[in-house]
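User: Could you write out the 3D structure of this protein bound to fe (iii) ion? I've included everything you need below.
Assistant: Certainly. Input first, then the structure.
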Amino acid sequence: MLFINIGRLYGTTDAHYLRGEALGEQHSIDDAWLLTQGSRIASFGHMRTLSPELLGGAHEIIDCRGGAIMPAWCDSHTHIVWAANRVGEFIDKIQGLSYEEIAARGGGILNSADRLAATSEDDLYQCSLARVKQVIRSGTGAIEIKSGYGLSLDSEMKMLRVIARIASEVPVPVRSTFLGAHAVSREYQGRQEEYVDYVITGMLPAVAAEGLAHYVDVFCDTGFFTPGQTARILEAAYKYGIRPKIHGCELAASGGVEVAVRHGALSVDHLERADEADIKMLAGSDTVATMLPGASFFLGMPYAPARHAVDSGAIVALASDFNPGSSPSGDMRLVYAMGCIRMRLTPTEAFHAATINGAFAMGLGAETGSIAPGKLANLILTHPTPGSDPLAMAAYMYTNPYIHRIFFNGREYM
Ligand code: NIG
Ligand code: FE
């Protein structure tokens, strides 16, 4: 497939991630062509380098008429598999209850776990697949999905099997994360250490034996799991070769960053309450600082210190956190726009944070997230925006339709 007359081709880098000043460098070509071969990007260049052989050899030519092409979004943090929404808690929140108060009243994650336990695997698959298709439609070309609404061996395995089934059904890469330690289940209330033992000895071996998780996650935060408990789980997971991606510093400066970095986590996510020492630690490591502005927006929390983290040299990624309790949107364009509007990242920085750095944060930096030969041809073709930078426009007029056509694995997604 040959794309011609691309007004601007974004993300032209073979880097696996970008940090510091490189995050804000343009990596784009004006007036470009791009050739795909099968599911991959083959080559690209300026229109003046387009040869008659290339033009003649293409199976299909797509004239972009000045529209931009960008790599599809890479959403490295979602809880998109759930059984029922929590719109009732949304109303409670409007009336003044905090996320912690709702959780303490038996709402929150435990509410989702009750509903998930009562839902058949097939129904869970169908409703979750519909949401995944919806986010793919909105331009997400790679996605990480967590378990964590099971909180028992049966239900966690059910969730992970659903994730695997989704992965085999959709045209984009899916990474799965085992989040057994998302909350202490009802059965184990008041017996937190025993629940941690259960995650380690009662769940992890089965998850590993079935090969159902690429990563392990722990909600390391006040009211949930301590850094010490987190370390126990991460060390147990390493014995199975499963690397951590953890939740930290959403509700308090919880020690989550330190335990994540010390264990070589791929990412530590949330960071709304991260302090100076946390940012320093991240800047000195290859652990991705993943920030989730959708949760800040929805819960009315502070936004994570993205500007400061980028300036300090941390690898910063943006993701949706799509879940029924704290971020009921998986729209990565909105996440990208919030990165600019609320976190003071430039459009170029926020875009790289939501594509290549998101890919890296789910172990897919070599596979997708930028325009490079050999990477997946997962592409968004935008409407032309004559006279204005289309990427900046997509953040500035943040509800304006911007997607013209979408391609995954080198095929148009209808
Ligand atoms: O990332 N922080 C923990 N977990 C999710 C929320 C889960 C829920 O409320 O259902 C989050 O915000
Ligand atoms: Fe989350």
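Residues 192-209 form the longest helix (18 residues).
User: Perfect, thank you.
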